[in-house]
Each structure stands twice: as structure tokens, then as C-alpha cells.
Design goal:
The protein is α/β, with parallel strands linked by helices. The strands form 10 sheets. It has a 4-stranded antiparallel beta sheet. The protein has a 4-stranded mixed beta sheet with strand order 12-13-11-14, covered by helices on one side. It has a 3-stranded antiparallel beta sheet with strand order 10-7-15, with helices on one face. A hairpin with a 6-residue loop joins β12 and β13. α2 (72-90) crosses α18 (590-600), α19 packs parallel to α21 (675-703) and α20 (650-671) packs parallel to α22. The longest helix is centred in the C-terminal third of the chain and has 29 residues, at 675-703. The relative contact order is 0.12.
């Protein structure tokens, strides 16, 4: 590429890119009037749609929640995508930036349920499914998707004519097809397993939607009496060689728990097979206090002799580790909770209906009254909370739909191993492998109403029929029962991530009248996202894309860093340190914010953002504006056919050579996803080369008498400013 053309001038080759009309510009740049005017003009002109016959280049937007508002993570993520899209558009690629929003099952349902409560209306269950969903759609049409307009304020040059929503009919058809086909292939099945249960939303949630927090808690040490008069010698003192020296006769075994209420669901006590203290008790029974139920003492390596008493109460229906112990030892699984975390009728009548933490206090008091409370130990514990509800999550035994993620993960692992898809920075592939190689069955059913309803219908004996629609399910049922029967559709909807896993191809018309864009723009060039959804989203798109399209959904996955406050702390409402990007856009302009984020987006390094940095890039805009004003006042105009390679004056040769060097640095930075290098190169050229030196050194020329040098300098300065506009266009 020669010095005359730093970037091929595509459809965005308009001097308006710099924010000024042709003719003399105003004294000050007014971002509040310029940015919306230019954006509207670009959008109306069709500049954001794929055009030309160049090589295709596509990015699918990580669809923001329909409930969402623009936060600093969105601002960074979408700025970087827009840099790539605008750059490739200018290079003559046929570019598609596919936009859309996600229906966000739990989040949206939560918004509308809160609204109903504030209005003093009945809850969703009293309202009924159809009327409740009507309310959600009304909310979505009126208030949902405001984030789309906020992205436009940021300057995001998506092809908005192609905007999709995860509950569009076409995307719903895609979800149904995928569910039915995976079921037919044996990759979706129904199973009773332990899940994370959110008692507020009364639904299963994934491991990734659980926040584990350190809280102050207790260890309650309980005596469980041995049944049938069994006693044993328990060592109470150890000699200097580590051997038991003093024993006492016990007719009980001690267990400890952080959740006393779950003891009503105990179906065993586990001891380590090599723990000499309890060898004689393996196979014996304990009489569970408060219930009188007999439960066995089993040998299992899960029990750690060095922890507490070395004996562990086993509640298979309410603890993930206990569930595995229960399966290995064929223990009963007794669910003691309702879906709102109240005690159910599987427990003694006295406790039925009690809320779990009320029941806890009652049980501790009753254990003490029976002489079974040995010790209460203060302890800091890790407790799981639902990330949306912020209530304590319960492990809960329930029937759910599962995807055989292990099978689907194998080709997706191989695709990264062989380089079909690469992570940038490269170290993120370790995170991907770690999760994919240890992947568990994916629970995809949610006990919600807002979402893609599961395409399964139940007959009178609860046998289910998975089909594309009710008519097809009826056909299956008639074959099975030999007659027409009444069918009831599954009440549950699918995990939001199930539909967003199909986003790279469902947005392009798959599986209906397939949009030609699918053939042209799948797979995408790059996915730009944050590390926290590598598991949630990236991995699942890889699995589903390879399975249904036969190839990876994107060639590169660029993982950007977090935006933190100036002290390096994570931004949060509780700390009061969150910065609203829209406030910065109002005060300093979208260009200043975009340039700040790009200039700070170094690979693998979090951004420490201070308002002053954005103000600094607003000053950068002002500096460029004043340089342009100076050029216009001195008669600098773009000359048709101007060849920068032919300039003779040393000063002009220097500014041209610096433009070429800068262009190469920008191209290299963007190609390697080193956005900070690219933005830094332009910043240095504008501020240091052109404004601080070139303009100052041209002043004597413009005041001098050599008309030929003046004319060359005017043409060179106009050319240099035009190159700056083009170099900055991806960023500003």
C-alpha cells in the first residue's frame, strides 16, 4: 500500500467523518449535535449494511438482555467490535455486524413480577400463564430494548435492519428443531438429579448462575444414637507414637453440619473405610433423632478422617457430594423441601410447612432438648446465592431435562486443539479446556413462563412425547396408546443459554427459508466477549454450531479485559463506584469514550478507568478540531490527484512518512487485536507529529513568500488531516 492511500476509501470516505461539514468549521466542536446528526445520516444511507463484492467479514453481537442498560462492559465490548467492523468495511470487505437482544428469562420475568407487585396486582400464578405472558410482551414492546438506542448513541454501526430477538418466530423454530433433533439422537433426556434450586424464582439455575460468598455461620455437632444397643470403644487420647491410649464407650456417633434442617432428610452416615475408630460400626444402623428412622453407617472415601469427627451425615437429596455418596451406596433419596424451601410432608408433622431457616432454629432447640446437641462452633462458610435473586440456593432433587454436554463437547475441544478456532489472548484456551474436559450434563429446563417452552407433551400416565408441535405429539401418542388421549404440554421453558447457543446461525434464517447471509457470513470472523461467559456462551455456541452447521461458528474469540475503577476495584452498585457510560457520552461525547476504551484495551490487562482519562480524549478531539481550523484558515484544501509521494519540502516529506508509519502501526494493531497499540499510534501522530510539530513548523512557511512551497504545504496538510480522519474512523 503506497503512501498516498493509508486506508482504501470505502463507503465511509466522507469528510463528515471528522464531524465538520465542507466549508469553514465552527470555533468549537459540539458533540451533542454532531454525533446524532452523523449517525442518522449514516444509518439512513444504508452504510451499515453489507455492500460491494469484497470478502465477507461478520461479527455477531453478544446479545444484551432485553432488560439491560448500557454499562461500561457493554461500552468496551461494542466499541472493540465496532473498531473491527468499521476497519474492515473501509478495507472493502462485505461486512455484517449482526445485532439483536436476548429475552433473558429470569431477569425479564423478575422485572414484570416486580411491576405487578408495585401495582398491587396479583402474582403471576394467580394471573395465569397466558395473561402473565401478555404483560411481559407489553413490557417488552414498550420498555424492552432501550439498550439498542443506547448502543446507537455509542456509535455502534450494526446492520439494524437485521436486528433479531431470541423469541422471534424464526429463532423459536430453530430452538424447537434443535431440541427435537438432540432428543431423537439421544443427546437430550429427562432425569431426576440434584440441581441448584432458587426458592425465590422456584426454578433450577445453572452452576454459573450461583455466586458463592463467604458468610459467618456455624458448625452444629450432633450425637446420632446407635440402634439396637450397639456400643463401641472411641479413642479420646493419643500417645506420643500416635496410637490411641485412652478409650470411652459410646452408644452414639458424632456428625457436624452447617445446615441442621437437612438432618430430617438424612439416609446414611459415612465413615472412611480405613478409619480404625469406626471399623466395627460399618453396616450398623443409627436411629435418626427427631424422626426415629433407622439409617445405615456406610464406608465411603468421601468421609475425611482428619475433618471433625471423621463421620459425615449423608443427605443425598440436598447436597451435591452426598448425592454421589448416596448413589454409590444405594441410599434412599428423601426430598424434604417444597419448591419455596419450606419443609414438606416427608418430615414429622411438627416441622411441616416451616420455612427452612425457621425450621433450623426449631430443630437445633429440639436436638438440644433431646440431649443430642454436643457443640456449636462459629465458622466462616461458603454459601451459594442466586445471582439474580440473591437468596440462598438449595441443592434440590427434581426431574429436569438434560443435554449430554460431554458428547457435544468432544468436537468443540478438538476444534480449538487443531486451531480451527483460536483464543486471543491465547492463555484463555486453558480455561476453555478445563471446563469442557470436565463438563457435566447441562440442565436446560427452567421452571419459568417467559422463554422457549419445551416441546414435550405428557399423556395420562406421564409418558412424554417430544415433537415439533402438538399435532405431531398427538400422532406419537395415538400410536403408543392405540387411541386419542388428552395431552398436556410441559410447563417448563428452556435455559436462556440454550437459545443463545444457536445465535450465530439462528439469526440468519436457519432452519426456515435460509437467508443467503448464512452461506456467506457463517462462520463469523471473530467473537468479541468477556471471559466470564466463555462457559455460559462461547463453549455452547461451539458445541451447537459444530453439531448443526458442521463447522465452528467463528474463527477467533477475542477475550477483552474488565473495566474497573481508577483504583482497580470491580465496579458495583454496592461500592458506589460504577461509572455510567451514557453520562460520559453526554459530557464528553461518544468519540472521547470510545477512544479512551480502545486506547486502554491492552491484551490481558484490566482497564482502570477514571473520568479524567475520558476528558483527556475529549481534549484530543479539540486538538484535532483546532488543527483543522488552522488548516482551513490557511487555505488548505484537498487537491484532486495529489500525490503525497511527490512532495519535495523536507517538512512535508516527514509528515507523509510519519503518516505511512502510523498507518502500518494501526493496521498491525487491529490485525493482532492490540487495540491500544493502534489507538496509541494514531494519538501520537495527531498530537505529537501533526499538532505539536508539523503545524508549528508550517507557520513560517505560510507567512513566507515561497508560493510553491506554500501550495505544496497546503495540499500536504489537507491530505494529512484527511488521512487522520480515515485512520480515526474505526475508533471515533
Amino acid at each position: 500500500m503506497g503512501p498516498g492511500s493509508p486506508l482504501p476509501h470505502g463507503r465511509d470516505d466522507k469528510r463528515e467523518c471528522a464531524g465538520y461539514p465542507l466549508g469553514m468549521i465552527d470555533d468549537r466542536f459540539d458533540h451533542k449535535s454532531a454525533e446524532p446528526r452523523l449517525y442518522d445520516a449514516w444509518e439512513k444511507s444504508g452504510a451499515f449494511k453489507p455492500s460491494g463484492d469484497g470478502q465477507p467479514y461478520a461479527i455477531v453481537i453478544p446479545p444484551p438482555n432485553v432488560t439491560g442498560v448500557l454499562h461500561m462492559g457493554h461500552a468496551l465490548n461494542n466499541t472493540l467490535q465496532d473498531v473491527l467492523i468499521r476497519y474492515h468495511r473501509m478495507r472493502g470487505y462485505r461486512t455484517l455486524w449482526q445485532p439483536g437482544t436476548d429475552h433473558a428469562g429470569i431477569a425479564t420475568q423478575m422485572v414484570v413480577e416486580r411491576q405487578l407487585a408495585q401495582e398491587g396486582n396479583v402474582g403471576r400464578r394467580e394471573l395465569g400463564r397466558d395473561k402473565f405472558l401478555e404483560r411481559v410482551w407489553q413490557w417488552k414492546e414498550k420498555s424492552g430494548g432501550s439498550i439498542t438506542n443506547q448502543l446507537k448513541r455509542l456509535g455502534a454501526s450494526c446492520d439494524w435492519s437485521r436486528e433479531r430477538f431470541t423469541l422471534d418466530k424464526g429463532l423459536n423454530d430453530a430452538v424447537t428443531k434443535v431440541f427435537v433433533e438432540l432428543y431423537q439422537e439421544g443427546l437430550i433426556y429427562r432425569d431426576k438429579r440434584l440441581v441448584n434450586w432458587d426458592p425465590q424464582f422456584q426454578t433450577a439455575i445453572s452452576d454459573l448462575e450461583v455466586e458463592n460468598k463467604e458468610v459467618k455461620g456455624h458448625f452444629w455437632h450432633f450425637k446420632y444414637p446407635l440402634a439396637d444397643g450397639v456400643t463401641y470403644q472411641y479413642p479420646t487420647q493419643i500417645d506420643e507414637t500416635g496410637k490411641p491410649a485412652v478409650f470411652e464407650e459410646r452408644d452414639y456417633i458424632v456428625v457436624a453440619t452447617t445446615r441442621p434442617e437437612t438432618m430430617l432428610g438424612d439416609t446414611g452416615v459415612a465413615v472412611h473405610p480405613n478409619d480404625e475408630r469406626y471399623q466395627a460400626l460399618i453396616g450398623k444402623m443409627v436411629k435418626l433423632p427427631l424422626t426415629g428412622r433407622l439409617v445405615p453407617i456406610v464406608a465411603d472415601e468421601y468421609a475425611d478422617p482428619a475433618q471433625g469427627s471423621g463421620a459425615v451425615k449423608i443427605t443425598p437429596a440436598h447436597d451435591f457430594n452426598d448425592y454421589q455418596v448416596g448413589k454409590r451406596n444405594k441410599l434412599d433419596m428423601i426430598n424434604i423441601f417444597t419448591d419455596t424451601a419450606h419443609l414438606n410432608d416427608a418430615v414429622p408433622k411438627k416441622y411441616q410447612g416451616l420455612e427452612r431457616f425457621v425450621a433450623r432454629k426449631q430443630i437445633v432447640a429440639d436436638m438440644e432438648a433431646e440431649g443430642c446437641l454436643m457443640l456449636i462452633e462459629d465458622k466462616t462458610i461458603m454459601q451459594p446465592f442466586g445471582d439474580r435473586s440473591q437468596v440462598v440456593v438449595e441443592p434440590y432433587l427434581t426431574d429436569q431435562w438434560y443435554v449430554d454436554a460431554k458428547t457435544l463437547a468432544q468436537p468443540a475441544i478438538k476444534a480449538v486443539e487443531t486451531g480451527e478456532t483460536r483464543f486471543v489472548p491465547g492463555n484463555w484456551d486453558k480455561t476453555y479446556y478445563e471446563w469442557m474436559r470436565n463438563i457435566e450434563p447441562w440442565c436446560v429446563s427452567r421452571q419459568l413462563w417467559w422463554g422457549h417452552r419445551i416441546p414435550a407433551w405428557y399423556g395420562p400416565d406421564k409418558k412424554y412425547f417430544v415433537a415439533y408441535d402438538e399435532a405431531a405429539a398427538r400422532e406419537q401418542a395415538k400410536k403408543h396408546y392405540g387411541k386419542d388421549v388428552e395431552l398436556v404440554q410441559d410447563e417448563d421453558v428452556l435455559d436462556t443459554w440454550f437459545s443463545s447457543a444457536l445465535w450465530p446461525f439462528s439469526t440468519m434464517g436457519w432452519p426456515g427459508d435460509v437467508d443467503p447471509a448464512l452461506k456467506e457470513f457463517y462462520p463469523g470472523a471473530v467473537l468479541v466477549t468477556a471471559f466470564d461467559i466463555i462457559f455460559f456462551w462461547v463453549a455452547r455456541m461451539m458445541m451447537q454450531g459444530i453439531h448443526f452447521m458442521g463447522e465452528v461458528p467463528f474463527k477467533d474469540v477475542y477475550i477483552h479485559a474488565l473495566v474497573r475503577d481508577e483504583k482497580g476495584r470491580k465496579m458495583s452498585k454496592s461500592l458506589g463506584n460504577a461509572i455510567d457510560p451514557l453520562e460520559l457520552v453526554d459530557e464528553f461525547g461518544a468519540d472521547a469514550l470510545r477512544m479512551t476504551l480502545a486506547a486502554m484495551a491492552a491484551q490481558g490487562r484490566d482497564i482502570k478507568l477514571a473520568k479524567q482519562r475520558v476528558e483527556g480524549y475529549r481534549n484530543f478531539s479539540t486538538k484535532l478540531w483546532n488543527a483543522t481550523k488552522f488548516a482551513q484558515m490557511n487555505g488548505c484544501e484537498l487537491k484532486a490527484g495529489f500525490d503525497p509521494g511527490s512532495v519535495k519540502h523536507t517538512l512535508n516529506k516527514w509528515v507523509v512518512s510519519e503518516a505511512v508509519r502510523t498507518t502500518k502501526a494501526v493496521e498491525a494493531g487491529i490485525a493482532e487485536y492490540k487495540f491500544n497499540d493502534a489507538a496509541g499510534a494514531i494519538y501520537g501522530y495527531v498530537w505529537n507529529v501533526v499538532c505539536d510539530w508539523y503545524i508549528e513548523l508550517t507557520k513560517p512557511i505560510f507567512l513566507g513568500s515561497d508560493e510553491a512551497v506554500k501550495e505544496e504545504t497546503r495540499a500536504t496538510m489537507a491530505w494529512a488531516l484527511d488521512q487522520i480522519v480515515h485512520l480515526l474512523h474505526p475508533f471515533m
